[in-house]
Amino acid sequence: SQQGEEDPQALSIQEGENATMNCSYKTSINNLQWYRQNSGRGLVHLILIRSNEREKHSGRLRVTLDTSKKSSSLLITASRAADTASYFCATVPLSGNTGKLIFGQGTTLQVKP
Amino acid sequence: NAGVTQTPKFQVLKTGQSMTLQCAQDMNHEYMSWYRQDPGMGLRLIHYSVGAGITDQGEVPNGYNVSRSTTEDFPLRLLSAAPSQTSVYFCASSPTNAGANVLTFGAGSRLTVL
């Protein structure tokens, strides 16, 4: 079964607006990662946040992690048409074999010019 | 650097046929994995390997075999293809195990089983 559940499944905004995507997971984690997938392409890593971190920034990206609620959010500020893509969260479970990176179902973001 | 290279990009099979999806990386990564991506299902882990000679099952391993004879290569074998295996397959690698590092993905292989 999927570890991560993402919300919303689809999001459509105007260029310049902010986009927020949420990810919830079920079990305790070592870290949580966000990836982007452009249509017809492989996934590209965006940012990693460890279980002892609460917030990380990378350019226009801001990720938060609330381990008590087992949730994370990805904020893209001042969105651009080039940000149109699917975004996935992925978790590494704390217990068991750390060789497994489990992905959520993804949020499809459309940024209209 | 080429990164992670997958071949073929597209393949059509008939039910019962066998084939191998190839994956090669030139980054000397220890960890390699195979995922399948289906609409509405996200990515699901099929098999992974933490080093040459070591493989393990992911979430959906049935119907697939893997081996890791070298650090560079991690082929995925379908012994008897079924329509349920129609999907887009992604190979990904990282320097060590997935918990400590991020994944580099290949461009994907789109498989259709008739």
Map the helices and strands.
The complex is a heterodimer of chains A (113) and B (114).
Chain A: E1 4-7, E2 10-14, E3 19-25, E4 29-37, E5 43-50, E6 55-58, E7 61-66, E8 71-76, E9 85-93, E10 102-103, E11 107-112
Parallel strand pairs in A: 2-11
Antiparallel strand pairs in A: 1-3, 3-8, 4-5, 4-9, 6-7, 7-8, 9-10, 9-11
Chain B: E1 4-7, E2 10-13, E3 19-25, E4 31-38, E5 42-51, E6 54-57, E7 64-66, E8 76-78, E9 87-94, E10 104-105, E11 109-113
What does this structure look like?
The complex is a heterodimer of chains A (113) and B (114). Chain A is built from no helices and eleven strands. In chain A, strand 6 (55-58) and strand 7 form a beta hairpin. Chain A has strands spanning 4-7, 10-14, 19-25, 29-37, 43-50, 55-58, 61-66, 71-76, 85-93, 102-103, 107-112. Helices cover 0% and strands 58% of the residues of chain A. Chain A is an all-beta fold and 113 residues long. Chain B has 114 residues and is an all-beta fold. Chain B contains no helices and eleven strands. The mean pLDDT of chain B is 93. At the A-B interface, strand 4, strand 5 and strand 10 of A face strand 4, strand 5 and strand 10 of B.
